[in-house]
Design brief:
Layout (H helix, E strand, L loop, with lengths): L4 H37 L6 H19 L16 H17 L1
Helix pairs in contact: 1-2, 1-3
């Protein structure tokens, strides 16, 4: 058993880095595959409110896992005038998660 405190600190740092990498990878993967997919591929007759609820659920879950401030969608996020801004917002969150 090593008695050098530096060994334990280095081991802890390595384990922390591995955990951080796994969390980052999973949150990015989950966000990318689910939120953007729901938004861009949902077909009628799914209501806009149902889509917003699904995406907000995933955004809240991502926020809980990452402790990043993530803004949820409003009831007007998927209107014609706001749709491109919403897509950009989700892409920004995805980029933030990827680069974190």
């Amino acid at each position: 058993m090593p008695t050098n405190p530096t060994f334990y600190i280095e081991t802890l740092n390595k384990q922390w880095h591995k955990l951080s990498t796994v969390i980052k990878r999973q949150s990015t993967k989950q966000f990318q595959q689910q939120n953007l997919h729901i938004l861009t591929s949902t077909k009628p007759p799914t209501s806009l409110q149902q889509i917003i609820i699904q995406i907000n659920h995933l955004l809240e879950k991502t926020q809980t896992l990452t402790n990043l401030p993530i803004e949820t969608l409003s009831k007007n996020s998927l209107t014609y005038t706001n749709f491109s801004n919403t897509v950009n917002q989700l892409h920004t969150v995805h980029s933030t998660l990827y680069n974190a």
